[in-house]
């Protein structure tokens, strides 16, 4: 069951490495924050303009995957996982949690100039909608207002620890993010990572070959082909051009560019951090990809700095 757990570990460590510089969209500020720094991963001082956490903790993106991981290891049988996952989402992110506390605090900021980051976790739009939909007992509970990667993050540990069946994975994705784009791009990420884990020399090209006639992935393949034409261009420049925000399909395209221009796990995550914006969501995809492609290439020092990693390595 846990033979591919290093893939999820790679995702969580990558998120934690990028987190202190999460959502820094101003390139001049980002350059100033990292200038002269020998190590920009796990920056000791929080520079995210929106929220501040202890270095080593993860964003709401990796946290969604961690909630799924905890659900998997505590559920007695497979059929219990999704119902338990919904309960755990409410418990971890909902009323009474640090996430919910800061959601209330954020409402004050809508009326005043944003001066400093909130202390503690930041609740994502998809997660907020999911909590409401779970409480209203809706059949499909994911959010619909944004095209962010929360569904992929939830599905990542499920895919590699429980089941790779498309029908099941789509259901998991839509538990947190209920749109066609969320589903398609989330599933595409997982299949590319899976090809990397199987030892394919070029997982992205293999994904194109396998799905070139599959209408379901038509837009994904079009996006990948566009990015492949930009392989020789600087990643920070390309990310700025394609989009460095949280939403797909720009998030997916920028991540693909990082993958095709990087040689290993560490270089990919550093490159993602330097590109700015929603680095955590992109780092999760890139980190899981390279930890699948080349096992045991996550820097040991980074694992030690990642607070939630300690729970994961108990099962490795």
Describe this structure in words.
The structure is a single chain. The chain is mainly α and 316 residues long. It has a two-stranded parallel sheet. The protein is globular, with a radius of gyration of 18 Å. The termini are close together. 49% of the residues are buried. The mean pLDDT is 96.
Give the biggest beta sheet: 2 strands, parallel
How many distinct beta strands? 2
Low-confidence stretches: none
Indicate the percent of residues in helices.
55-70%
Structural class: mainly alpha
Number of helices: 17
Mean pLDDT: 96
Order of strands in the sheet with the most strands?
1-2
The rounded distance between the terminal residues' Cα atoms is: 10 Å
Beta content comes to under 5%
Silhouette: globular
Order of helices and strands: HHEHHHEHHHHHHHHHHHH
**Taking Cα atoms only, what radius of gyration do you get, to the nearest Å?**
18 Å
Features:
17 helices, 316 residues, two-stranded parallel ribbon, mainly alpha
Summarize this structure briefly:
The chain is mainly alpha-helical. It is built from 17 helices and two strands.
SSE layout and pairing:
Elements (H helix, E strand, L loop, with lengths): L4 H14 L8 H8 L16 E2 L7 H15 L6 H13 L4 H12 L8 E2 L5 H11 L14 H12 L4 H11 L3 H18 L5 H9 L6 H11 L6 H8 L7 H11 L4 H11 L3 H15 L6 H6 L3 H5 L3
Parallel strand pairs: 1-2
């Amino acid at each position: 069951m846990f033979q591919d757990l290093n893939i999820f570990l790679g995702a969580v460590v990558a998120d934690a490495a990028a987190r202190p510089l999460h959502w820094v969209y101003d390139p001049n500020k980002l350059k100033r924050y990292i200038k002269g720094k020998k190590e920009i991963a796990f920056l000791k001082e929080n520079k995210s303009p929106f929220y501040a956490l202890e270095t080593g903790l993860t964003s709401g993106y990796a946290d969604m995957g961690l909630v799924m991981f905890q659900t998997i290891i505590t559920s007695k049988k497979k059929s219990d996982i999704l119902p338990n996952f919904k309960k755990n989402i409410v418990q971890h992110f909902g009323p009474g949690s640090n996430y919910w506390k800061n959601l209330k605090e954020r409402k004050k900021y809508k009326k005043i100039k944003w001066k400093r980051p909130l202390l503690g976790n930041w609740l994502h739009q998809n997660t907020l909608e999911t909590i409401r939909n779970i409480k209203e007992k809706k059949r499909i509970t994911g959010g619909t207002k944004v095209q962010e990667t929360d569904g992929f993050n939830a599905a990542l540990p499920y895919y590699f620890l429980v089941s790779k069946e498309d029908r099941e994975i789509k259901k998991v994705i839509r538990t947190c993010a209920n749109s066609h784009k969320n589903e398609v791009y989330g599933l595409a990420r997982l299949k590319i990572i899976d090809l990397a884990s199987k030892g394919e020399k070029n997982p992205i090209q293999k994904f194109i070959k396998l799905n070139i006639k599959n209408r379901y992935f038509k837009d994904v393949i079009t996006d990948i082909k566009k990015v492949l034409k930009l392989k020789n261009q600087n990643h920070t420049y390309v990310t700025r051009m394609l989009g460095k925000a949280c939403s797909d399909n720009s998030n997916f395209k920028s991540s693909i560019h990082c993958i095709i221009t990087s040689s290993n796990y560490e270089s990919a995550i550093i490159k993602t951090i330097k590109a700015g914006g929603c680095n955590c969501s992109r780092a999760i995809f890139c980190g899981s990809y390279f930890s699948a492609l080349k096992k045991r290439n996550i820097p040991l020092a980074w694992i030690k700095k990642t607070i939630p990693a300690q729970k994961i390595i108990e099962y490795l």
